[in-house]
Amino acid sequence: MNDIRNFCIIAHIDHGKSTLADRLLEATGTVTKREMRDQLLDQMDIERERGITIKLQPVRMNYSSGGKDCVLNLIDTPGHVDFTYEVSRSLAAVEGAILLVDATQGVQAQTIGNLYLALDQDLAVIPVVNKIDLPNADRDRTRDEIVHLLGCRPEDILYASGKTGVGVPEILETVIKRVPPPAGETSRPLRALVFDSTYDPYKGVVAFVRVVDGELRAGDRLRLAAGNVTSETLEVGYFKPKMKAADRLVAGDIGYIVTGLKDIESCRVGDTVTVPNFRELGVTPLPGYKQITPMVFAGIFPQEGDEFDKLREAMLKLKLNDASLTFEPERQTALGFGFRTGLLGLLHLEIVQERLKREHNLDVVVTTPSVAYRVEKTDDTSMVAKSPQDLPDRTNIRSIAEPWVKADIIVPREFIGGVMALVQEKRGLYRDTEYMTAEASSASRVLLHYELPLSSILVDFYDRLKSASSGYASLSYEFLDYRPADVVRMDILVAEEPVEALASIVYEDAAARIGRRICETLKESLPRQQFEIKIQAAIGAKIVASERLAPYRKDVIGYLSGGDWTRKQKLLNKQKKGKKRMAKQGRVEIPPEVFFKVLKKKE
Predict the structure, then answer these.
(1) Any idea which architecture 4-178 has in CATH?
(2) Of the four listed, 168, 209, 264, 375, which is most buried by Cβ atoms within 10 Å?
(3) Which residues in 251-396 belong to E strands, given as ranges?
(4) 579-595, pLDDT tens digit by residue?
(5) Number of Cβ atoms within 10 Å of the Cβ of 1
(6) Residue 578: CB partners within 8 Å, gap ≥ 6?
């Protein structure tokens, strides 16, 4: 195993991880020039369109160094804060990490967040300054920031360009020198960590594993320790980067196992693949991962009521491929049966919605996202409200607590005022300021530490932060604790009918402003009807905001060429009565895109 190195690339979003991975694949000859394309490891169309990595992706490379053949197992990871769980799972499967920093942007918030995750796993960290070919690259400033962050020597930092390939051979050599070979023994009973999985309609569940001890061949019996199921291994292999069958997987390898299991829920991320009689042999399952806590909850309902079973199957397959996703059945009067879904952020919600549409051909309605509130009731019981519908009547509530997060914001010094004003508006509490270099006077950027209510940064905080800093600020956050909150449930009524999907939990002092904004957005977005539509925001029986959407007007007197005015008045009165009748009977169908428009503009 001395010839195996397992490592991953960690960085802030858009610092060039996938581009550097392309150059590593080229330099090791893993992919031919004919097969090469940009962002090769980004398998999903959404990743290519948005230019971001959503899923971790492993690949096996062969490389000769000093006359010795080495196997390099690379895992490319996402950079956005919503996909931190993908990064933490990747780090648990490797011994080293390349910390990539963009020379034009310097150290960013998620650079620090991902670095701390790597240090928690006690990994060998190799700092690399990327994009040095760009004319606005500032190598010296970036070097000083990394030295200040890591406490390493300047000569330990590598310089590279993922675009041109400069410095890539040096990175490969450094990985072999600095990243320790994997521990573990092939002679011991099998233990392999499931760090990801996917579902194939022909093969069943395919588990992505890091083999810690022992070996596994096709035809061997295996057991999933936590899932408590036994199966026969149909195939084992590596990622090159497509799946390539092999004779066996041995200790230290990263590869895949075709389990043959059709029950999607039996193979969970973090489980240990081992031998069937592991208990008799005294084999201890691997510790796996800590359970992820969802930060945001939203209802997902099929647009067509008869597609609930199809949605459930799609959610199970997404859960297999996205371990941070949680869901439980939910029923709403207007929307029928669906799922209350737990996610890590709003981008995560968008990606789930898009994947349901593209991969499973499902049109869904998404309700307004909410955080989980802790409610103390007057009868001395407590509950967790994950949606506005869960919130009991105000007379039964003693107190409500909301989740707060610890936020790190990195921003150039000249934009500190605008960023501080924004965070203060979002009810943030300032903690302290940290300079990005050892000399405070020479630091062009600062790290602001804040505490914020999670609900304040759900919808548009990131966009407004970018606006306040001309695009230069970056944000990273993690859960802190629960604190008292003065919030109420606000209902939205369209044509005097409450729309459950648009109900939300808001701060009482901001309810009128948010209600007015939602009503205005609905007025702009809803299709007009033959009758007037009343749009209202209400807290209990009190209307706090209201708008009216004018009806289509049919010219019923257009064909009259003359005569007494009473003829025209008679027709107009008849039309007015008809519209009143329609308004009483009419239901307004709200298109799915309207829900997301309201969500985007709510704050």
Answers:
(1) 3-Layer(aba) Sandwich (3.40)
(2) 209
(3) 254-258, 272-274, 296-302, 326-332, 336-343, 364-366, 373-377, 382-385
(4) 665 555 556 667 666 76
(5) 15
(6) none
